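Issue: copy button drops trailing tokens. Both records pasted manually instead:
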Amino acid sequence: MNYNTQLPHLIISEYGRNVQSMVEHCCTIESRDDRNRCARAIIQVMGQLNPHLRDIPDFTHKLWDHLLVISKFKLDVDSPYPKPSAETFETKPKNVPYPKGKIKYRHYGKIIEDIIEKAKDFKEGEEKDVLKRVVATQLKKSYLTWNKDTVLDEVIFKHLAELSAGALKMDESEKLSDASDLIKRGPLNINTSLGVKKQHGKNNFKHKKFKRK
């Protein structure tokens, strides 16, 4: 009995050892026509092994690329797509720079700070009052994610004022939702809370849109 550790390394493990064995056999076929027929048959098997990927654009193109990768680029067949080179897969991708920017309260996150910055520009009125309450409720919900016990509304109001540099102040007499209710809820939808309606897939909102910087 042979263990997998004693067998040759799988180039792309998602396709399994049988597919790799078929590709290795295909490389040994001398007749080009027979080799092409064998390659197309292997492509069909590879596609059947991953039916959930069929909706991905260029699915068949990916299968042919993977076929050549499994053969270590030794398989000489008439692919319907440009043949990739080994160097294409050996080149390391560029490092993605980590977002920079100081977050005052990390448990609230960067997005809520961006929303607060936009909210500061709203004109005083009912809409801004509703927005302040929605943001304050989200602050409380985020706080409870890290501290399951409880948090006073006064603490949330203080943090909201700090994060907005005093531009968003809540009335101390207001009461936010109870901690137990917030823990059970899903994520807040700010547009829904403001009564924003959608038209043709876009928010019908005359004021500034919330966009991450």
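Record 2 (pasted manually too):
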Amino acid sequence: MTITLDGHNLTIEQVEQVARHGRKVQIAPEALARIKKCRGMLQKKIEAREIMYGVNTGIGEFSEIVLDDEQVRQFQKYLIYNHSAGIGNPCPIEHVRAAILSRINVHCHGNSGCRPEITQTFVELLNRGVTPVVCEKGSVGACGDLSPMAQIALVLLGEGEAFFQGERMPAAAAMQKAGIPAPGLEARDGLAAINGSNLITGIASLELLDAERLFKQAEIAAAMTLEALLANMKPYDERLHKLRGFKGAITSAENIRRVMAGSDLVTGKLKVKVQDAYSMRSTPQVIGAARDHLAYARRQLEIELNGVADNPIFLPETDTVLTGANFQGTPISLPLDMVGAAVAMVCVLSERRLNRLLNPALSVGLPPFLTKGAGMFSGFMLSQYTADSLIVEQRILSAPACIQSIPAAADQEDFVSMGMNTALKTRQIIDNGYGVIGIEFMAAAQALDFRQFTKGAGTTAAQLSVRKQVKHLDEDRPLYPDHNTMAAMVKSNAILNDVEDKIGTLKDSWS
């Protein structure tokens, strides 16, 4: 079913459907009417030679330079040329598609002043599978994602490069094969195509969903470890968490209880300690705090997805042109910085539970390093090394980018969000998180092999899911294939899907 864009109702889930799964989009008729009305207003002002930033003036430090009629006609092309100044590998196709979708929804408000052909061409790029080649690095997140968005806008001129049907080729060839005419750029069109933090927003939307699914899997892995360590389950009582009141902790404790339902540990058949270590009994509070931040970050992202991020902004109803800084990426980069830090924090907690599984002084009777041949074999000793190395990298990457502004454009742009740096490092933090949680899954499955009691339905499903890909470690073997397999399983949500097939859907941070 096609998603209809009107500027007001785009969700993060729809971003994923379009960016990753190829769902088609269309512009709502009332949105198209707004775009045309705004363009009509702008055209009258151009003919009246009213001075408007980025239309008949230069940009940045050159904003006081007024262009003549011929320069106005040529300016948008050169604007896109000189802003196509990124560097590095191409962005993943899903990131570029998310950025294009975000930009279309900005235009649907009817405040950007571009011709409707520009917005409609963006729609056709998505629907026909033409994805501009965009360098990952070069955006400072204000005035929006100028460099990457300019590489997207090059295809409006029939220039640049694009991916089409699995091949990288000149954009002109891709558009010709897809049957998309290049609309060219007239007054205002180029700046309206690039002047927002749309790539940051698109990437952040996908990362938010990935972090949510990672947290669910962290809860499943925690449940397995808690069973293996014969945890006292009183710290997961719903009443305890409702007394404090944090929604994230309530949700996390509920998910863990559901995964462990039916276990002898829950029904009280096993003797347990009076009180466990923080890495066990604080799990709902820690993952819950991360969940609460995801819920906040989601609100910020959906405001941005459905807001007018542009400059200048045109108000046809009052014949007004407003200049400002709605392109500024800080409202996204700040919460996204904290999403990365939250993922790193959850992984630190995971590693501490892993440590308790492996350390014979802490593992409540489990074999040292989860091997029956200690001394001859080292079991999972080196798996902890790997998890530790991933976590140190996460910690380094968790330094906030939103405070790292470097002035540019002769100090006209003297505070920028660095939100693209945030998006890139958060992606790496999450990727490392797949490995850390995957290693806990692998160790917890091994530990449960040594426990002879009735386990929870969810933990049993998770253990069986692990065993589909990674066999029990009876004798030492090279573990790097298993580590990579487990990371891929976590990334693909394979274990989460198997558990939810058995016990039903676990709660989200925002449910």
